[in-house]
Amino acid sequence: MNKTVIFVHIPKTGGTTLSVILIREYKAKTIFAVDRSQNITVETFKALPGEEKEKISLLRGHFAFGLHHYLPQPATYISMLRNPVDRVVSLYKHILREESHYLYDAVTSNNMSLEEFVGSGLAAELDNGQVRFLAGEDARTIPVGDCTPELLEMAKKNVMEHFSILGEMERFDESIDLMRKRLSWALLPLYKKVNVDKSKKYKKSELPQNIVTLIKEKNALDCALYEWNAELLTQQFANNDSTLFTTANDIFQKSEALKARLVDEPKDSEEASKCISIAKQRINAIELRAKLQQSRKQLKKSRQEKSDLKRQLKRVEREYSSIESELEAMKTSKFWKMRSVWLQFRKLLGLSRA
Questions:
Q1: What is the pTM of this model?
Q2: Residue 46 to residues 8, 41, 165, 344, 348: CA-CA distances in angstroms?
């Protein structure tokens, strides 16, 4: 049985783009999305009958680690991290844009600056939010300011024991290519960035140092988790060549940009259409090559497993032969002969063998 993939979507870490990739990879009827805007909560998932949960191949949404405990089948986790400073700034800008966000009124009615927002303690998201998501459901209810180093260790432990990969927004392409290989996706995860903030306000390079320092102080555990995971990913990426995917995705993104131009400049449609057609052919060729590489790896793995089984069988045969020899030796022993006579005698008397 394939493991159910659980995607812990930490806000403002590139999760919306990843969700689009996942929705394309998994069948719609096997996806369960926790979505508060649709009144589908974690409790909705927990209340599902066992037979419904068994059909889930992808469970995704803004929820903390731990939902595998409510699945009858095996599961594995994926998620993305982001530099804590960038994530908090992005969250602030997102709140100012989205009137439906639960913090919109609190931030706008008080005309909060970024610095005031960071120090406000308005929500747990501002206080080591990434560690909270990965440490578990209970971690999200810890009061602001009360997170401890033990929470960080809990998050690390969960990642090491339950995650196929914890990617990084700053290395998105490498992360999802490794994710593709570890989860054996059939398609290349080609994508266009979704929910991108095009505002140039509060660029990291232009942020006042006191705000950067404040964000790091309020999110010290997130910073430690990010650095720890970055080292892990560097080691993992060193053993993974993502050239094939990045080449295909570059062609795909240029092709999509060309399609967008057609809307504005229809006079170039014939030439652009030819370019898009060529791009599709190149992408198809790269996808085919990727599938061949995956098939070769699976064949190599199957051969290795077959070889291992043969070795195990030979060992069992040797052990069986040794036991047979010992039994034969016992049958010629004085004890065995006396036991045989004793059993015949009991049978003669009509007594049972027990």
A1: 0.76
A2: 16, 9, 24, 65, 67
φ, ψ for residue 24, nearest 5 deg: -75, -30
**DSSP, res 35:** B
**Are the CB atoms for 92 and 117 separated by under 8 Å?**
yes
Segment 5-14 mean pLDDT: 97
- Cβ atoms 164, 183 nearer than 8 A: yes
* Bridge partners (DSSP) listed for residue 77: 6, 163
Both structure tokens of 109: 């009615």
Rounded Cα distance between 192 and 256, Å, is 8
Is residue 29 within 8 Å of residue 55, measured between CB atoms? yes
Q: Cα–Cα distance between 249 and 245 in angstroms, integer? A: 6
The angle subtended at Cα 49 by Cα 46 and Cα 54, nearest 5°, is 90
Could you tell me if 126 and 218 are in contact, meaning their C-beta atoms sit under 8 angstroms apart?
yes
User: Could you give phi then psi for residue 203, rounded to 5 degrees?
Assistant: -60, 145
The token pair that represents 336 in the structure block? 């065995």
Tokens read off for 97: 């844009």
CA distance 185 to 187: 6
CB-based contact 151:65 (threshold 8 Å):
no
CA dist 226 and 130 (Å) reads 9
**pLDDT (average), residues 39-51:** 96
- Per-position DSSP letters for 122-138, written without gaps between them: --GGGTTHHHHHHH-GG
Query: What is the residue type of 57?
Result: S
Q: Is pLDDT of 285 > 80?
A: no
Q: Which two tokens stand for residue 112?
A: 């909060």
Contact 56, 30 (CB under 8 A): yes
Q: What is the pLDDT of residues 89-132, one digit of tens each?
A: 999 999 999 999 999 999 999 999 999 999 999 999 999 999 99
Residue 147 in contact with residue 225, Cβ under 8 Å?
A: no
Q: For residue 14, which phi and psi values (nearest 5 degrees)?
A: 85, 15
Contact 34, 40 (CB under 8 A): yes
